[in-house]
TrEMBL record:
TM regions (residue ranges): 28-46, 67-89, 101-122, 134-152, 172-192, 213-235, 262-286, 298-315, 321-345, 357-379
Official protein name in the record: NRAMP family divalent metal transporter
PANTHER family tied to this protein: SOLUTE CARRIER PROTEIN FAMILY 11 MEMBER, TRANSPORTER PROTEIN
Pfam families: Nramp
Localization annotation: Membrane
Record's keyword terms, sorted: Membrane, Transmembrane, Transmembrane helix
Organism of this sequence: Scopulibacillus cellulosilyticus
Membrane topology field: Multi-pass membrane protein
Lineage: Bacteria, Bacillati, Bacillota, Bacilli, Bacillales
Length: 387
């Protein structure tokens, strides 16, 4: 249960998570608390619906989608694999940067070392258990260090609480970006697929599945809130944040050189766990398409990580590709959640299971809201590519 929760949470907490939270807190100040509050609500209903339906049907997201509409599962799988691969290039880059901050080695050397560490996780016999333990330890380290930095900046907590419910400004773009970063693309299915692989499935497992999904969201929320408060503390003091590396700047302003090293540790832990989560979940979307793919899934995961690393080492981060994939990523969640909600009422998929109305109605609302906001965001990002 905790392994799935931490896999989902640490998959969400990557280099983009750190940068987005810092940048939006700079622009929205205390009102960013409202964005976090709304995103937590959306995330909980999205994840709880998806994980429960996967557990009850005992099938992965792509197989459920193919049963609802033949061929749809292949499309969703392709989008998730392409998105996971593109973002994994960024994750490898973040891991390299993290080791660069900690040790002073070059980012490319740091990326190569991080790649080897990620590969070792999947090369051991009990890869699933090692992955669970690795993400749990890394997640706990990130939370402890982030809370420490937030405490050091002495943020205006009272103001943050008030603005979380009565914001000065509501920014739609920030909401869809944060939701997409928390449960978009492959992240939506990371924990659900991990539970299936561990044998946690069926109606009898629903209490455990629901609890695991909520824990995953709350872990992500704790990290987001701690980082928000850390940045808010720096902003409220009128200190200048370096726009070239805003997250590192916040940590350095908060705790000097020690803070900068803490940033390196958090950046590396966030990035390496996202590398593991992206590779594992992306491959879980194609391994059921044939017995050969299923048998060789471990080696496909390894190839996925190696290819991502080589792309970064020889090409760098393809910014326009990442922007385009990010736009598509924002649309995967409403489509996938909508398909799974339909599946929840098909007896051939879920048998005699009755999906709760109190989950269905909020789930449908999340689909509608995210589809509208995601469509708007995708158009905006696509237009920005041609400016």
């Amino acid at each position: 249960m905790l392994g799935a929760a931490f896999l989902m949470a640490t998959s969400a907490i990557g280099p983009g998570f750190l940068t987005q939270t810092t940048v939006f807190t700079q622009s929205l100040a205390s009102s960013f608390g409202f964005v976090i509050f709304i995103s937590i609500i959306i995330d909980i209903f999205a994840q709880t619906n998806v994980w429960r339906i996967i557990a009850v049907s005992e099938k992965r997201g792509q197989d459920i989608a193919n049963m609802v509409l033949p061929g749809l599962g292949y499309i969703i799988a392709a989008l998730i694999v392409i998105g996971g691969l593109a973002f994994n290039i960024g994750n490898i880059a973040g891991a390299g940067l993290g080791l660069n901050v900690i040790t002073g080695i070059s980012p490319k050397t740091g990326a190569l070392i991080s790649c080897v560490i990620a590969l070792l996780i999947f090369l051991v016999k009990e890869a699933g258990k090692v992955m669970d333990r690795f993400t749990q330890i890394a997640g706990l380290i990130m939370i402890v260090l982030m809370v420490f930095v937030a405490w050091k900046t002495s943020p205006p907590i009272g103001e943050a609480v008030i603005k979380s419910f009565a914001p000065d400004k509501i920014d739609v773009f920030s909401i869809i970006t944060i939701v997409g970063g928390s449960v978009g693309g492959y992240i939506t299915f990371a924990g659900g697929h991990r539970l299936l692989d561990s044998g946690t499935k069926g109606i009898s497992a629903l209490p455990e599945v629901t609890k695991s999904s909520v824990i995953g969201i709350l872990i992500t929320a704790v990290m987001r809130i701690a980082l928000f408060l850390a940045v808010l503390g720096v902003v409220s003091k009128g200190l200048h944040i370096d726009s070239n590396n805003p997250s590192a700047s916040v940590f350095q302003l908060a705790a000097g050189n020690i803070g900068y090293k803490i940033f390196g540790i958090i950046m590396w832990a966030a990035s390496i766990t996202s590398v593991v989560g992206a590779a594992y979940t992306s491959v879980s979307f194609i391994k059921t398409f044939s017995k050969k793919l299923n048998r060789n899934s471990k080696w496909i995961i390894i190839g996925f990580i190696v290819f991502s690393t080589l792309c970064f080492l020889f090409i760098g981060q393809p910014v326009k590709v990442l922007v385009l994939v990010g736009a598509l990523n924002s649309m995967i969640l409403p489509i996938a959640l909508g398909v799974l909600l339909i599946a929840a009422y098909k007896k051939k998929i879920v048998g005699d299971y009755k999906h709760p109305i109190w989950l269905t109605i909020p789930g449908v609302l999340v689909v509608i809201v995210l589809f509208l906001m995601g469509g708007y965001t995708m158009i905006e990002q696509l237009l920005s590519l041609f400016k």
